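Predict the assembly for these two chains.
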Amino acid sequence: MTPPDFQSFQHAFGRHLRDPQHTPRPPGVPARRMQVYNELLFNNLTGFLDACFPVSRSLLGDARWRRLNRTFYRDWKAQSPWFRDIPGEFVRYLHEGSIRQPLPACLPELAHYEWAELAVDTMDCPIPGHDPAGDLMSQPIVLNPALLNLSYAWPVHRIGPDCRPRRAQPTHLVVYRNAAEQVEFVEINPVTHRLLSLLANAPTSGERACRQIAEELQHPDPKRLQAFGSALLADFQRQGIILGVQP
Amino acid sequence: MPQQFPHLPAAAERCSRPGRPAQGAGLGFRRELIGALQGGVPAAINFFELAPENWAGMGGRSARELRHFTERYPFVCHGLSLSLGGPAPLDERLLRQIRAFMNEHGMTLYTEHLAWSADDGQLYDLLPIPLSEKAVKWTVDRISRAQDILGMRIGIENASYYVAPPGAEMQETEFISAIVRQADCLLHLDVNNIYVNSRNFAFDPLAFLDGLPLERTCYVHVAGHYVEADGLLIDTHGAEVIAPVWSLLDAAYQRIGNVPTCLERDFNIPDLAILNAEVGRIAERQALAAGQQGAVAS
């Protein structure tokens, strides 16, 4: 079935909105009125992007940032009806889109890191039943579900207008929403990152998780690792990264 | 001490709440206002309106704060992204999410713009539908499907626009009337949109009002707008309501009586006291309209 003819106007209108400089204005549409839409729609989009990515924006400078915003609107067909997903779509564009504009190698990860705060702040995950007084080493641990356990090749948390990393440096961060509903960032080491992954994959006691890590590392002193793990898990519970144990 | 995490019910436990229809005068619910509203909701505000696109499927502080108010006040669900006249397939997943969200918060009315907002991707704003017979049928089918999924009639809002798509086969009032009749849906009347369009396209707003299927009106919007240097009006919801728009609201009430009406304010948001006074002006007009109707009836 051929699409109804009124849709050819809609597609021409959409193409022009996405790329006003390189596509013709749809026939019969006055320039002044088209300009209203071109400004309204792009300003709407950049409003969401500017709010979420202040560091990425400052890293690129306004002109390059706007050019990148424009190719995102032009080339990336965002599907989510939720406006708050616009930043997440932008991060996917940076990772998966074909972008001709030269960009700093760290930008996709930096943008992901900036998006993580929004994602964790609004994550819809109920707090599971848990016993906050249980023994973390002997019983299956319940992690805070409003949490991202992240690994980056670049030190994304240090990047700013005065700090542009020249080379990659593996970085592990846990981003989570605490009991006061504030988003917290904690830098962790690779072993701790692995420990949190194990706890997130399946309900596991601290003792079992530490034993697995000792085996993976072929650690010479598993007992010391257990003691270290026990202190670390208690600390995580104080911070709200761990809720407690399964009831 | 371990932290005490606030309770948030799991999706399965978020059973539907009894419906709470909106009445009287209301205000658009915005994050910027939550702090002030927590100090007390002013008396003139009988209900709130929100866009599901900004609130559904969220957790954390936003969800908890919204729940606090939906437990105490009626809320109207006013959509932005359904793209009723759009060329892409109807987003049925969005509709099912909206249905669950409305049940969870006891909302009984959903309205959307008679517009489109996506081609093969989201454009994230409202655009005018060409006024053609085929577009009527296309949009009617989509509204019918939306009503099937939601299990209720929806309201469609006369939108503001800055371009009249070429090749129109009918007047806009005929377009709206045909869609409302054929889809058996309701009319969400936006008097500011009529005023803005009447100025930008030089038509008589009262004649336009009279051309609409007003007997189907379920809900009314009133708002302020912005005037550009060359006189073009932009529907920003960023200023106070002007006198001609209040007059148009009065004219609407004379025709339809007292219908729930929301003040939209999305930019340059002033103090709650100022918004409350503006919502109060809606309520005064509603009382006057109800009195006049009573006088006619007696």
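Chain A touches chain B through 59 residues (CB under 8 Å). The CA atoms of residues 137 and 207 of chain A lie 5 Å apart.
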